[in-house]
Structure formats: structure tokens, C-alpha cells
Design brief:
Layout lengths: L1 H38 L2 H17 L4 H18 L4 H10 L2
Length: about 100
């Protein structure tokens, strides 16, 4: 009976290791994303934001994409539109 538990225990260990690796990868990606948006010009932020908006209308985005686009949105609103949601919304509407 203990022999049949070993494969399950091994599988649990592999799942745990994969989860840890995934968490570390997401952490590294988040750090890279933070650095990327801080050095982007406002014009580049606008391009990336519009691409994010377009991609969101074409297909379902994964969590990482949603997080990245949210960071871009906030940075663009802060730096490009002085935190003014209405100005940013008007600009976005004019881009269509």
C-alpha cells in the first residue's frame, strides 16, 4: 500500500516545485514590468496602452497581461494626463 502512495507523493512534490518556480517567475516579471514602465516615454506609454486596449477587445488576456496593461494605464494617466481620467478618456476616444 505504501508503494502506491509514493507516486502520489512524488507528484505532489513536483507540483509544489512547479508552483514555486512559477511564483518566482511572476515576481521577476513584475519587477521587470515595474522598471519598463518607469523608463518609457509618454509617447511609448500611449502606444503600449492602445495596443493593450486593442488586444483586450480581440481575445481574453491572461492575468499577467491584465496586470501589465493596468500598470501601463496608471503610469500613462499619471504622467501623460496629470492623473485626469476624463482627459485620458477623451484622448483614447479620439484615437479610435
Amino acid at each position: 500500500m505504501s508503494a502506491s502512495l509514493k507516486p502520489i507523493g512524488r507528484l505532489s512534490q513536483l507540483i509544489f516545485i512547479a508552483a514555486v518556480i512559477l511564483a518566482l517567475a511572476q515576481s521577476v516579471l513584475a519587477q521587470k514590468t515595474d522598471a519598463d514602465h518607469q523608463i518609457m516615454s509618454v509617447e511609448r506609454l500611449k502606444i503600449v496602452y492602445l495596443d493593450c486596449a486593442r488586444q483586450a477587445t480581440l481575445h481574453r488576456q491572461d492575468t499577467g497581461d491584465v496586470m501589465y496593461c493596468s500598470i501601463i494605464y496608471e503610469e500613462l494617466k499619471r504622467r501623460g494626463f496629470n492623473r485626469d481620467f476624463n482627459r485620458m478618456r477623451a484622448w483614447e476616444h479620439a484615437q479610435r
